[in-house]
Amino acid sequence: MPKISAVREVIATLKREFPGKGAVELGRAEDVLLATVLSARTRDEQVLKVYPKLRAKFPKLADLAAAKATDIEKPLSEIGLYRAKARAMKGIAEILIRRHDGKVPSTREELVALPGVGRKTANCVLCYAFGKSAIAVDTHVHRIANRLGWVRTNDVEKTETALMRLIPKDLWLRVNRVFVQFGRNICIPGRPRCYACPIARLCAYPKKTPRP
User: Where in the chain is the domain with CATH 1.10.1670.10?
Assistant: First the structure.
């Protein structure tokens, strides 16, 4: 188990290397929620391409709620699972209007009750829309945490629980933001680019790749 000082150093270093915001940090809670649901098994670049088309066609929640799912599918057809995601968009809009006065709820329990929303999506919304402390664990966070030796887990929920025990709460908001960017650029799936890694000396990964 790493020392807390090493955990802080890793996150501080990655924050300096990757200072940008996450792709789904779109400001309004409604946009963060819907875009994050669309991002499941889909690259953020694709989400950012189709999401403006979706909102141009359905600018208000009431428009999404009133639409047929087949009409919502059309602007989403370039991304994976678009039919299921279209149903989720409609269902989310209906529930937000019916139960939450058209506003995105700010508790995990209420968020995961929405169609297409799991813990990762709920935690993204808590972090990026409401500034609440949460650790959103996706495949990047799960992979990197295991490679670093911070956790030894085989699913994202166990990783989230383990990271919550390990990482000081004041750092939770930064974890997903920096790990996702780091995971796309350096600590990639398969053969990570360890030779370019700014935190290699703090990493327990035993198969560090040399410079090609």
Answer: 4-21+135-202
Query: What value, to the nearest 5°, has the Cα angle with vertex 98 and ends 89 and 71?
Result: 30
State the CATH class of domain 4-21+135-202.
Answer: mainly alpha
Q: Which residues are catalytic?
A: 120, 138
Burial of 61 (0-12, 13-18, 19+ CB in 10 A): buried
**Alpha carbon distances (Å) from 128 to 44, 125, 141, 147, 191:** 15, 5, 16, 26, 30
pTM of the model: 0.91
Residue type, 31: D
For every one of its 212 residues, what pLDDT tens digit does the chain have, with 9 covering 90 and above?
Answer: 789 999 999 999 999 999 988 888 888 999 999 999 999 889 889 999 999 999 999 999 999 999 999 999 999 999 999 999 999 999 999 999 999 999 999 999 999 999 999 999 999 999 999 999 999 999 999 999 999 999 999 999 999 999 999 999 999 999 999 999 999 999 999 999 999 999 999 999 999 999 98
Cβ proximity of 182 and 148 under 8 Å:
no
The CATH fold assigned to 29-130 is Endonuclease III; domain 1 (1.10.340)
Tell me the CA distances in angstroms from 207 to 184, 192, 193, 203, one per residue in order. Answer: 18, 9, 11, 11
Q: Tokens 């709920």 belong to which residue?
A: 122
Q: Name the residue among 134, 128, 71, 75 with its Cα closest to residue 104.
A: 128
In the chain, CATH 1.10.340.30 sits at: 29-130
